[in-house]
């Protein structure tokens, strides 16, 4: 866990500029087309390093097939959190100039897709050390680097999680919101190899929340694009926005009391549920690992009881604002909460599988 305690300040000496761009909008609104075009423009004209992180290409497809709608929705939230954890893991690697190693707890196929995404866009290459370890390329280490996150991001709270990550490490942050008529999205969706049900897009259209700069100061680096699906919409305006965000990274802990309360309300709507789902998955994976290691039955029982108690303590802190396990300063950051849970989990597991932790 020592790596997780490193800070941006420690890794920023001589470091390159880093930015996160959230690309959001309805399915089939032209996000992926714009992302490809924008990536090419930024490489050729700006000389930047760019990686497009397309959620649909990384999160396992099998979890979105079948008829179990509520279960799939819950799994989708859990996998979104896992992908955000991968993203932070990669950012920590760049900031501290390490090799990229696989997290202890991961969904194997999903992690491999994430690694392939970075490899295919020239940000990492196979290292010479231990297995599942990758070296950062010169592009990643020396050029200004933008990570473009391609997903629907239809709730403000989803985008705010990315903003929190940018604020935590003082990165550039901006949003591109593709405003496309529902009818156009439905028509384009039908031309896809695997079209979504019309009802899914219509439901998302009713729920989607566009950037609100007047209400949320954290959304001030946002641009609403009237999408035509050509991938070249407002290219100069887009480039100007990304340049401004990169040159003016989010200041860590820079907030007034009014904005802090707004932030708290946004976070509190989802953080408890997200934490509960993630804790359950971590415990399930840990218990499977313990069984694979042939931990004897009575120790398995004790391990399960300790982990269940740990989960209950964490959720109690989040629910009532206590600080028994989670410092109050961390309770609005799901990534901080998960990191703390991993740390406490490792301490528990060491009693039963010391050679693995």
UniProtKB/TrEMBL annotation:
Organism for this UniProt entry: Monodelphis domestica
UniProt GO molecular function: ATP binding; kinase activity; L-seryl-tRNA(Sec) kinase activity; tRNA binding
PANTHER family from the UniProt entry: L-SERYL-TRNA(SEC) KINASE
Descriptive protein name: Phosphoseryl-tRNA kinase
Keywords from the UniProt entry: ATP-binding, Nucleotide-binding
GO BP term, example: selenocysteine incorporation
Domain of life of the source: Eukaryota
InterPro entries per UniProt: KTI12/PSTK, L-seryl-tRNA_Sec_kinase_euk, P-loop_NTPase, Ser-tRNA(Sec)_kinase
């Amino acid at each position: 866990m020592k790596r997780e305690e490193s800070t941006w300040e420690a890794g920023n000496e001589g470091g390159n500029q880093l930015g996160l761009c959230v690309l959001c909008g309805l399915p089939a609104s032209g996000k992926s087309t714009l992302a490809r075009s924008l990536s090419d423009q930024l490489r050729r004209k700006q000389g930047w390093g760019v990686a497009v992180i397309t959620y649909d290409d990384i999160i396992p497809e099998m979890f979105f097939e079948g008829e179990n709608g509520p279960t799939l929705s819950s799994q989708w939230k859990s996998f979104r959190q896992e992908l955000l954890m991968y993203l932070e893991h990669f950012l920590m690697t760049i900031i501290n100039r390490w090799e990229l190693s696989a997290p202890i707890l991961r969904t194997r196929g999903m992690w491999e897709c994430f690694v392939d995404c970075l490899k295919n866009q020239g940000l990492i290459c196979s290292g010479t050390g231990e297995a599942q370890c990758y070296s950062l390329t010169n592009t990643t280490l020396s050029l200004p680097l933008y990570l473009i996150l391609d997903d629907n991001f239809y709730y403000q709270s989803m985008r705010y999680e990315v903003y929190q990550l940018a604020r935590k490490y003082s990165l550039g942050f901006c949003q591109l919101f593709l405003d496309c008529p529902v009818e156009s999205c439905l028509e384009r969706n039908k031309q896809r190899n695997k079209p979504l049900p019309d009802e899914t897009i219509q439901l998302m259209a009713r729920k989607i929340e566009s950037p609100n700069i007047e209400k949320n100061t954290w959304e001030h680096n946002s641009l609403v694009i009237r999408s035509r699906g050509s991938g070249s919409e407002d290219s100069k305006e887009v480039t100007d926005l990304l340049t401004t965000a990169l040159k003016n990274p989010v200041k860590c802990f820079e907030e007034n009391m009014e904005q802090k309360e707004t932030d708290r309300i946004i976070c509190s709507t989802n953080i408890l549920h997200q934490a509960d789902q993630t804790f359950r998955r971590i415990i399930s994976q840990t218990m499977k690992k313990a069984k694979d290691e042939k931990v004897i039955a009575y120790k398995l029982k004790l391990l399960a009881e300790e982990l269940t108690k740990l989960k209950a303590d964490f959720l109690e802190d989040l629910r009532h604002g206590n600080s028994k396990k989670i410092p109050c300063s961390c309770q609005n950051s799901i990534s901080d909460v998960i990191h703390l849970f991993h740390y406490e989990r490792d301490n528990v597991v060491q009693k039963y599988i010391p050679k693995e932790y």
